[in-house]
Write a structure and sequence with these properties.
With about 280 residues, this protein is mostly beta strands. About 10% of the residues lie in helices and about 55% in strands. A hairpin with a 7-residue loop joins strand 22 and strand 23. The longest helix has 19 residues, at about 1-20.
């Protein structure tokens, strides 16, 4: 009988916890703009997505969620309601800031995912403490950083900067230069028309360039693969402490060894400088 009673109590408690497990809310904002947009976006937890929208209008959709533990605070619903009534959105002309909450305590234990559609002519600075960042289809430049979470940036008409403490970085179809840093996780930058500067403490680096420009890549642990612009000339300097180096046919300058190569491809050009502590190097 006691066991049966305990079972009933357990079910009741579990049902109560499930009911309290998550508070949710959302808000939507539509802002009129004219000309290029200067956008700043920030979230502590939840992630950021910015994609190309219609000219003259910037649309924001935010999703708010809170997970309660056994001793979770009971005011999460009230704080979410406050955020939905007074969304953290600021506009001064074409300069827009999203996610900059005046009272940080409002977001304690609450994730805020920001989904934004913006005109093509937008430059952006995006920051996420926990959560991924996705940016696609704008002119840029783009400056992005996340402490925990991946970064995916595509179809940008100017320069891109991306940094992640933990999480991979994927960048593609960039008309300008790329600057990428990751502590733990790999870097992939493909179809880049400008210079590339990439560093990974732990993880591989894969690069592909469409126009000849300087390339610098450094990996502490993980290999580097660099595909050069077809038919273009480069100067090459590659060194790895542990691993093999593979290079295209080139005029060798100075000593040539398994771990250190210098030379010219197609008569020379922008410098390709690759350094790897542990892992191989492939230049194609």
């Amino acid at each position: 009988m006691k066991a049966f009673a305990f079972g009933i109590v357990s079910v009741v408690l579990a049902g109560g916890l499930a009911a309290q497990a998550e508070e949710q809310g959302s808000f939507d904002k539509s802002l009129t703009v004219s000309g290029p947009v200067d956008l700043e976006v920030k979230t502590d937890s939840g992630g950021i997505s910015v994609t190309q929208g219609s000219a003259g209008v910037l649309k924001i959709h935010a999703i708010l969620k809170s997970q309660h533990g056994w001793f979770g605070s009971g005011d999460a619903g009230a704080r979410i309601a406050e955020l939905t009534r007074n969304p953290p959105v600021e506009q001064t002309g074409n300069r827009i800031r999203v996610g900059y909450v005046r009272d940080p305590a409002l977001l304690r234990g609450i994730s805020m995912r920001l989904e934004i559609q913006t005109p093509t002519h937008t430059q952006i600075r995006a920051r996420a403490d926990s959560g991924g960042i996705r940016i696609e289809g704008i002119s840029g430049p783009v400056d992005s950083k996340t402490d925990s979470g991946g970064i995916d940036i595509r179809d940008i008409s100017s320069d891109v900067r991306a940094a992640a403490d933990s999480g991979g970085i994927h960048i593609g179809n960039i008309k300008g230069a790329v600057f990428a840093r990751v502590d733990s996780g790999g870097i992939e930058a493909s179809d880049v028309a400008g210079a590339i500067d990439a560093e990974a403490d732990s993880g591989s680096i894969q690069l592909r360039q469409t126009k000849a420009a300087p390339i610098r890549a450094k990996a502490d642990s993980g290999g580097v693969t660099a595909r050069l612009a077809p038919g273009a000339g480069y100067d090459v300097s590659a060194q790895c402490d542990s691993g093999h180096i593979s290079v295209p046919e080139m005029t060798v300058k100075g000593a040539f060894s398994r771990h250190h190569v210098e030379g010219k491809v197609h008569g020379g050009g922008p410098l390709v400088d690759v350094r790897v502590d542990s892992g191989g190097i492939s230049i194609q």
